[in-house]
Design a protein that fits this description.
This protein is an alpha/beta fold. About 35% of the residues lie in helices and about 25% in strands. The strands form two sheets. An eight-stranded mixed sheet has the order 8-9-10-7-11-12-13-14, with helices on one face. Bound molecules: nicotinamide-adenine-dinucleotide.
């Protein structure tokens, strides 16, 4: 079916998430024409040479917006340059690797900031909306304890590309900076506000030579008396289960960290809620719906301020003073 194009978009950054998730989502979207693929690395450009799309080392004119699937130590400067050039920007999370690095966003005028959407992709999942409803309407009780166990990126020394990519990412901060971008955004969204305090925190390096602690955790207080216990871990040979659970006086809700299947257990029953399609496809599609809406004048969700707030909490947990 021909597309009813509202927006001409370039994908900048042709690495892992760029090619595996953003590229197919941009190609699928009925209101987006993907017109440029940009990466300074010639090998990355060669990987997409067979697609019928212009490929370049630097962004060229003729687009309304860009999706930045670039490393977080590159994304801030590109976001500032492109929004100042009048473009809409969907920028991958985290918005920077530290609050110091995020100061570059202070250069933006309000109208420019307003053109930035942050790639906190899983905020768009209906499972997060369902969980927010159960918390807000008291299905689980008045006050809840959230336990977030976020474990990913197993250590596979025989996979040189993965080992190099995760080691390079750790050089720019512990997993809490990278995964916390998502989790602290969900917690604010679920618990009705930003955390009041980081009450406690810990970090462990499971082997010598790692550039940052690969296991980190904390206890946080939220408005309304809600508490959160969070753990983030990467790069061990085996990983614990990745899940988020919300426990209150009346019930327990569990979110599978990979499928986003939800289980609600109360004294009366157990119910499993699954949403159609796989989590990645539906979230990347919904994220682009929001990007087109932003281009049409609807405020960004999640906004640059949401991304910075999640980074601020992650940095407090990581223990680096602002
Ligand atoms: N939203 C999500 O669910 C999700 C999932 C995975 C990764 N991410 C985020 O996406 C970002 C990219 O992660 P990745 O794993 O794909 O990394 P990656 O290293 O595989 O890819 C990054 C790409 O950016 C390119 N690049 C570097 N500098 C550039 C520049 N100045 N201009 C254009 N391109 C440039 C690199 O050549 C590389 O191809 C990270 O911030 C990561 O946290 C988000």
């Amino acid at each position: 079916m021909p597309k009813d194009v509202a927006m001409r978009v370039a994908l900048v950054g042709l690495g892992d998430i760029g090619l595996s998730a953003h590229l197919p989502a941009l190609q699928r979207h009925p209101a987006i024409e993907l017109v440029q693929l940009v990466d300074p690395d010639p090998d990355r450009r060669a990987a997409v040479a067979e697609l019928d799309i212009q490929v370049a080392a630097e962004l060229e004119a003729g687009v309304d917006g860009v999706v930045l699937a670039t490393p977080p130590w590159v994304t801030p400067e590109l976001t500032v340059d492109y929004t100042r050039a009048g473009l809409f920007v969907l920028a991958e999370k985290p918005v920077a690797t530290s609050m110091e690095a995020a100061r570059i966003y202070d250069k933006l005028e309000p109208a420019e900031r307003g053109r930035v959407q942050v790639g906190l992709t899983y905020r768009h999942d209906p499972a997060i909306g369902q969980l927010a409803t159960w918390i807000a309407n008291g299905t689980l009780g008045e006050t809840v304890l959230v336990r977030a166990h976020i474990y990913d990126e197993p250590y596979r020394p025989d996979d040189a590309e993965h080992t190099a990519r995760i080691t390079a990412t750790l050089e720019h901060g512990s997993p809490v900076v990278h995964e916390g971008a998502h989790v602290f955004d969900w917690l604010t969204h679920l618990l009705g506000g930003r955390p009041i305090a980081v009450d406690d925190r810990w970090a462990v390096r499971t082997r010598a030579g790692l550039p940052a602690p690969n296991l980190t955790g904390a206890r946080l207080s939220y408005p309304g008396g809600h508490q959160a216990l969070v753990e983030f871990g990467w790069f061990t040979s085996a990983l614990p289960r990745c899940e988020l659970s919300v426990l209150g006086d009346r019930g327990l809700a569990t979110l599978d960290g990979f499928t986003f299947a939800l289980t609600l257990t109360t004294a009366e029953s157990e119910e499993v809620v699954r949403f159609p399609g796989d989590r990645m496809t539906r979230c990347f599609d919904r994220q682009l719906d929001r990007f087109v809406a932003l281009h049409n004048g609807v405020p960004a969700e999640p906004s640059l301020d949401d991304g910075i707030a999640a980074l601020r909490t992650a940095q407090l947990v990581a223990g680096r003073a602002e």
